[in-house]
Amino acid sequence: MGVSIRAEVRRQVPPNTELPRTAQATLEVVHQLLTIIQQDDLMPVLIFDDTDRWFRSAGSGVSYQELALAFFGMVLPELRQLPTGMVVAVHTNYLQDTELADHLDASIELRVHIPELATADALGRVIHSRVIAHTSPDDPTRAPPLGEVVSPTAVDRLHELYQSESTGSLRDVIRTVHVAVTDACNGGFATVTPELVDQAASAW
Q1: Quick one: which of 3, 74, 87, 83 has its CA closest to 43?
Q2: Among the four 75, 108, 155, 171, which has the fewest Cβ within 10 Å?
Q3: Contact 163, 116 (CB under 8 A)
Q4: Residue 132 CB partners (closer than 8 Å, separation 6+)
Q5: Could you give the percent of the chain with pLDDT greater than 90?
Q6: φ, ψ of residue 67 in degrees (nearest 5)
């Protein structure tokens, strides 16, 4: 956010201020902050980019199903009343639950289906974007080519796993790559190999 917006937010919500604890009062505070942002001719957007992960890692004693139903059935409709755009990641397993699917249909206006990556080359581009992010995010041209980190045959193996065991989950593939890179560094390998990919995939 720009300096003027940050200053205005600080003025509206001074340090050490305790936010109201009721859900309605908290939403009113959020509404005020979003309105401040809009006054600078900006459109705030709330992004929930990985709902599946934080549902599964809640650790509150509430089941994954109960938490997902509460969010999509109660919280999301309330958030839609705020003066903001909203993007919500919806995993395919949500749509297999009739009640969850009904909540999603009632709350989400435009559904964009992200297709599975059809080729190993497409998956390799995604993995290379992670290499760039970790090595040279400010200047992608200085990042090493993918082949210097993950061998072409390892990318092929990752795509096979992506289509079979990972059933189209990019998160699972990227997690496998992270483990394989760690194993490659610890083992003195020049690049990630298919064997390291299999070893990493079976480790979790």
Answers
A1: 83
A2: 171
A3: yes
A4: 140, 143
A5: 39
A6: -65, -45
